[in-house]
Amino acid sequence: MPARHDPLLRHPTATGLSALAAIAPEAAGMPLFRAVKRALLQAIEQGTVTAGDALPSETVLARGFGVSVGTLRRAVDDLVADHILVRRQGRGTFVATHTSDRFLFQFFHIERADGLRDAPEVELLSFERTRLDDEAAAALGLKPGEPALQVENRLRLQGRPVVHDRLLIPAALFRGLTEKRWRERSNTIYHLYQTEFAITVVRAHERLRAVGADRNTARVLGVPLGQPMLQVRRVAIALGGLAVEWRVSTVATTQHEYVNLLTRPT
What is the CA radius of gyration of the chain? Predict the structure, then answer.
């Protein structure tokens, strides 16, 4: 029996892909560029290429997949639009790393009413082990009562307390995560997930509604009990479609707003 080999191997001069399995157009079962996109995604999900890794040139990748450079480029364009890959002028294409800038412009939608957008100052309020309640379990596709980590944060913008965050993450996905590691992280929460647990958040599903400030939020943000607030309920979704975080953010909107740019697919 011939030796098995990974069709996606390390490049000798770059940490990207080199030897690739050609994609047969008649067997793809989908547009060819989508098959290439899926193969690249699988390589990232399996850790063949990781955050910050460079991909070989488009010519090398196209030759390996047995497709045209135009087809390869369309697949890469989709992954860039999805913030999974990033192009750096004069340097090449890389697997995107979560940074403060990426979090601010992709995942954080609160800004001052006059349009000023700043990265929030995050203050950890609590970190504890708990179990998933019915709502969080349903959002994460898990069973109620499964072990979880719960984190509460207060986010300040322009020096004012604006957002009260409560996060629940499955303990099984984040083994070894402690309050010390959480508190001493060097970058964003999603950067921590990516670099220490190989969990790359690529999108989020959010629902918004109006609520009155409960006692806890009123205390955390210094607002009157019952004050009208905006509540954002988010499921963070990682590569492979895995739901990895349930987050409830309660936002004081006296001076701040939720802003999102809607675009029509091209």
Answer: 21
Pairing of strands 243-251, 160-170: antiparallel
In tens, the pLDDT along 171-210 reads: 999 999 999 999 999 888 999 998 899 898 988 999 999 9
Contacts of 241 (CB under 8 A, 6+ apart): none
3-state secondary structure of 205: strand
For 38, left (φ over 0), alpha (ψ -120 to 50), or beta? alpha
Structure tokens at 222: 């210094």
3-state secondary structure of 67: coil
- pLDDT tens track for 75-123: 999 888 888 888 888 888 988 888 766 665 678 899 999 999 888 999 9
Domains of the chain and CATH, by start: 25-95 (1.10.10.10), 100-258 (3.40.1410.10)
* Residues facing 17 on adjacent strands: 10
Beta-carbon contacts of residue 73 (< 8 Å; ≥ 6 apart): 58
Q: What is the 3-class SS of 177-217, one letter each residue?
A: CCHHHHHCCCCCHHHHHHHHHCCCEEEEEEEEEEEECCHHH
Residue found by looking up tokens 């990265």 in the block: 119
Packed helices 69-81 and 32-45: angle between N→C axes, nearest 10 degrees: 60
Give Cα separations from 239 to 45, 67, 138 (angstroms): 6, 24, 19
Closest CA to 245 of 186, 194, 211, 184: 194
